[in-house]
Design brief:
The structure is a single chain. With 354 residues, the chain is α/β, with parallel strands linked by helices. Helices cover 32% and strands 20% of the residues. The protein is built from 11 helices and 16 strands. The strands form 3 sheets. The chain has an 8-stranded parallel barrel, surrounded by 8 helices. A hairpin with a 2-residue loop joins β2 and β3. α6 packs across α7 (214-225). Bound molecules: phosphoenolpyruvate and manganese (II) ion (MN). Manganese (II) ion binds at residues 103, 272, 298, 308-309.
Length: 354
């Protein structure tokens, strides 16, 4: 259920609604700020909420059903797209962000080289410290040592850090360095991990599971939103279909569908979908033109010898031209590159691109 507060509602009015809901067993209540005013989401037991007759309380405009299976992520609850300030970058309908960096942090030199190369056009730096690998014998990341390297890369470039949390035992260490916590595709339905990620007070990038429906993605987002964070960004990274020509099938239809059904920003990751660097740019441009808020791309200084995802990582020397072309496609969708955090080299002009 959604309790829509009147524009003139006071904090005391909201508090009264919240205390009734908090005292109701089986109901989770959360104040949701929106462009048109405050609402209160009351999820769990609609009959119990109805019995409270909250519409009779001062400051309450209406009590409405939330029909869809996902609640806090739903566009029914928060109308219009959310805009988040993530580590000084605006992520939302007017801007466009590129998150770029290696699949894994493999060494200090590699990470600093890639960070410096992407810094002029990227809005954030990605890099895995803890890698979820299909085989337990594959390279699983440098762990804590990688977090120190990422922190140094941020100090040198000003780029906020996006890195994956795979295990709740690493939560504190990852949160101490990450500006944005990534939940990988394989962890999308690890509900205890989602709960921990949501409680760290950091923005969360939530990747769509390999075989997850969009409803399931949004219900997973609800797990994160139920905790302290408001800032969840969804990531389409390709799904399993009958076709094995590409590593995964990029579901570009997910972008406009998510724009209709959720207020949360949307990332597209063409790297993991394609599994082949030659295909990444076309998918990235299509995603930007289709209205993605962010493109997340893997970039390496020596991709063919990368310890993880070697076939799909772009070479650093190709990144600048790649970024120009993707930004030109984002401009078609009316977006400008999210403003840098602090002084950085000048941007390549979007107008010179394809
Ligand atoms: C990654 O971003 O490096 C990664 C492992 O992605 P995914 O969880 O989408 O496979
Ligand atoms: Mn990867």
């Amino acid at each position: 259920m959604m309790i829509v507060m009147a524009p003139r509602a006071t904090a005391a009015d909201v508090g009264r609604v919240m205390s009734r809901l908090d005292a109701t067993e089986g109901v989770h209540a959360k104040v949701v700020p929106g462009a048109g005013g405050v609402s209160v989401a009351a999820v769990g037991d609609p009959a119990a909420v109805r019995r409270l007759e909250l519409d009779k309380l001062p400051g309450v405009d209406a009590v409405a059903e939330l029909e869809r299976p996902y609640k806090l992520a739903s566009a029914e609850l928060v109308q219009g797209p959310s805009t988040f300030d993530i580590a000084g970058r605006r992520v939302g309908p007017d801007t466009f962000c590129l998150i770029a960096g290696p699949c894994s942090v493999e060494s200090r030199e590699q990470t600093l080289r890639v960070a410096a190369a992407v810094a002029p056009q990227a809005s954030m730096l990605r890099g895995g410290a803890f890698k979820p690998r299909t085989s337990p014998f594959a390279f699983r990341g440098l762990g804590l040592a990688a977090l120190d390297i990422l922190a140094e890369a941020r100090d040198r470039t000003g780029l906020p850090i996006v890195t994956e949390l795979t295990d709740m035992r690493h939560a504190e260490a990852v949160a101490a360095v990450a500006d944005v916590i990534q939940i990988g595709a394989r962890s999308m339905q690890n509900y205890p991990l989602l709960t921990v990620a949501g409680s760290l007070g950091k923005p969360v990038v939530l990747k769509r599971g390999l075989s997850s429906t969009l409803d399931e993605l949004l219900m997973a987002a609800d797990y994160v939103l139920k905790e302290a964070t408001e800032q969840v960004v969804l990531c389409e990274r390709g799904i399993r279909t009958f076709d094995t020509a590409l590593r995964f099938t990029l579901d570009l239809g997910a972008v406009p569908w998510l724009k209709l059904h959720t207020h949360l920003p949307v990332i597209v990751d063409p790297s993991h979908a394609a599994g082949d660097r030659r295909l990444v740019e076309a998918l990235a441009c299509a995603a930007a033109a289709a209205g993605a808020d962010v493109v997340l791309v893997e970039v390496h200084d020596d991709p063919t010898s990368a310890r993880c995802d070697a076939a799909q990582q772009l070479h650093v020397r190709d990144f600048s031209a790649f970024a120009d072309r993707v930004l030109a496609h984002a401009a078609l969708a009316g977006r400008a590159l999210a403003r840098p955090l602090r002084d950085r080299p000048p941007l390549h002009p979007v107008s010179s691109a394809a």
